[in-house]
Amino acid sequence: MTDTIEIRGGVDLPARRENIELHTSDGLTLVGELALPLEAEPVATLVCLHPLPTAGGFMDSHVLRKAAGRLPALADVAVLRFNFRGTTSPRGTSGGEFGEGIHEEADLAAAMAFVAERSLPNPWLLGWSFGTEVTLKYGLRFPVEGAILLSPPLHRTSDAEIAAWAGSGKRLVAIIPELDDYLRPAEAAQRFASVPELEFVAVEGGRHLWVGETQVSRVLSEIVARVNPGVLPLPTTY
Q: H helices then E strands: how many in the chain?
């Protein structure tokens, strides 16, 4: 009889995990990982765009790592993570140098080309902090179902780039921590007012880095509520 696993911290549930490489149009190789459900075909795909590399963000930033560790098994979701250009993680180092959110357009394009090549279904962009800037700037150029924004700072995103999502037919979900260091719910509601169909989620007690199992569970549940809501609530044991 198999022992029950408590789902918390850095536990990795069973999945098909593959180290992958992405190749950008400007000649760089980016390192990453694809995690797929162990037996079932995925019902949706998360393309994860990590926080600011110059502040320690990488493909293993904890919410993204936990999404890859849990959601293939719990929600039949494929999770693609990669290091933006110039970023290092235990998986390795991606080529190039930090591109200030401009050259990372090519990184996102390479990830979406990989999604198409592998015929991964129903892709969603999952951006966190800096990753939300890349998502908002360039996500509309790709065939995605929508985008989920965790702790968007909106430092590099113009009002016009936000407004472009209105009427696009792509869903936009903003998950805003009550106690964020950069953009709190009241200000976020104003900044996103140009997108009336926005799905706005203010998380009481939430912080920019989403530290602690309570915050992680809330974020992962909000993600799954968009990509495969029928499996909710997510279990706490496996």
A: 6, 10
Taking all residues of the chain, what is their mean pLDDT, rounded to a whole number?
Answer: 97
**Which tokens sit at 95?**
């080529």
First to last CA, the chain: 13
3-state helix, strand, coil in the chain (%, to 5): 30, 25, 45
| Residue 24 near residue 30, CB atoms below 8 Å | yes
Q: Which domains does the chain have, with CATH numbers?
A: 21-229 (3.40.50.1820)
Q: Quote the tokens at residue 124.
A: 């969603």
Residue 171, helix vs strand vs coil: strand
For residue range 58-90, list pLDDT tens digits in order.
Answer: 999 999 999 999 999 999 999 999 999 999 999
Q: Is 43 exposed, middle or buried (0-12, 13-18, 19+ CB in 10 A)?
A: middle
Distance of CA 37 to the CA centre of its chain: 17
